[in-house]
Amino acid sequence: MARYAGRRIVQAAFVLWLAATLAFGAMQLTPGDPAQALLAASGATAEEIAERRAQLGLDAPVPVRYVRYLADLLRGDLGQSWLHGRSVGRMIAEQLPATVELALAATVVGVGVGLALGILGAVRRSTWLDTIVTAVAVLGLSTPTFWSGILAILLFSLQLGWLPATGEGGLRHLVLPASVLGFALSGSVARLVRARIVEVMEAPFVLAARARGLSSWRVLCVHVLRSALAPALTVIALQFGFLLGGAVVTESVFARQGLGKLAVEAIIWRDLPVVRGVIVFGALGYVLVNLASDLAQAWLDPRLREELA
Amino acid sequence: MIEWTAPPRRPLLRQPAALASLAWLALAGLGAALAPFLAPAGPLEADTARALLPPGPGWPLGTDLLGRDVLVRILWGGRWTLGMGLAALGVAVGAGLPVGLLAGTFGGWVDAVLMRVVDALLAFPGILLAMALVALLGPGMGSVAVAVGAAAAPAYARVARSAALEARAQPYVDAARAVGCTEWRIMVRHVLPNAAAPLVAFAAAQLGWVLLNGAALNFLGLGAPPGTPEWGAMLAQGRGYLRDAPWASAFPGLALTLTVLAANLVGDGLQEALRPR
Question: To pair with A179 at 20 to 30 A between CA atoms, which of A59, A104, A203, B81?
């Protein structure tokens, strides 16, 4: 287990390093001079721009800047926005709570609905109920949140006037975006859960349990669900990346604050340190969630624990 | 009651959902291809005298803020959206297939090196990767297609590798090697054709993914320039006057959703039809 954990941690560190390096390389390849970009609007002279370049450390050779950049990252310093001159880390910290709130609420909706649908579809395989579950799941997977979001605004805000269309503040503002993003998530969760359960239902040990004359429900709850859902939960953790991307779009639809708004504005204004900061931060979150779920999985599953020992 | 056993698999053309999906894809493709004949005036023809009109004769899906026919714009928009999707799929397959095939056929250190890189890219949320690439390439329709395609490529490489591994384990590969075929020839003439089935099925599902995410980037304003009749961009434009003309955003979104749904259903259908017994 310790060896496996060590290997997984090294792997996670490698992915993070790769992400950080890609982000750095991408910025090097991008045309344009950041000092000029920063000062262009204020009509600065050539000397002022050169001075700013030195101040930003841009006159150093690329390898030196790369090492400085990695050292800064390790200290948690994501650099400075070209547009606002503020610390990228602080800008992310300001926007983070809104995104986390949305992502968590959507996870509750998506995993709850997805689990229920997936179990229902699997136990009633190839009946009309399964057909409905499969249809709902693929619909969730295929519907862009920017369309379902707009339909939800049309119906619940403009027509019925039940919930506010945009903005934030309290539960009432969270219901629509969380449901829209949660519905999209529930599609993939339902398909994963259904496929896992169906697979386990055909396993020899399930046949053996049924042959021993155990009741169907007992076999389902004790034997099938327990061994099907543990791995399914890890795969659900992988959906964190989907949530992150989905939150970007959903925030835009409902005009919410958050990392998505920050990233989109930064891309449009080519405020590359902010883009880079959001990417590196997103990768960090994603890698940590996956690492945690893999380690939890290995710790929970005795077979895996032995295999990895 | 609990159903314990698997249903028999059906060929693609015996699955109603897959058939309907193929029909929709054909219709959308034809509409986009024939747009210049069906609506020769083009998607930009504005007439403020008929702005924000609900669906009616003359403009079956209503008009937008500038009095442009929403149906005409959806037809022309298919050229942007479907073109972007196909281009992105081309990038994903073009980059992912050779990598996966090489890794699966040659194995050894080739496999180890290529798959470490693929794994690292896979450990990165696809849409974030696409957004990073758009930031690098600069906003635009071409950037969106390349970015979304590149973000989909690692997953395609994984699937191509496992399909190649499976095909390589067959006796005919040993036979080919015994008569003196080179590894390259084995890869191109023996492994690739026999690995084709799962690769086609996965490509269909990937088409759904790139369409959805490409349109999302356009919706966010990172792709097509303002006014372009791309479906995601149309949705974003219509959002500004949602209360007065919901049809201007609802119908482009419907066209996009149906297309993504159709691609996913064809992918599912192929997977069922090609499932090994």
Answer: B81
Number of other CB atoms surrounding residue B131 within 10 Å: 30
ipTM for this prediction:
0.86
Q: Does A247 touch chain B (CB under 8 A)?
A: no
Q: Do A150 and B239 touch (CB under 8 A)?
A: yes
Q: Which amino acid is at B82?
A: L
Chain A residues lying within 8 Å of B208, measured CB to CB: 141-142
pLDDT at B133 over 70: yes
pTM of the shown model:
0.86
**B6 to A202: CB separation less than 8 angstroms, yes or no:** yes
- Contact of A250 with A148, CB cutoff 8 Å: no
- Predicted confidence at residue B153, as pLDDT, reads 94
A244 and chain B in contact, CB less than 8 A: yes
Q: How confident is the model at residue A37 (pLDDT cuts 50, 70, 90)?
A: low
* Of the partner residues A19, A139, A249, the one whose CB lies closest to the CB of residue B220: A249
Would an 8 Å CB–CB cutoff place A158 in contact with chain B? Answer: yes
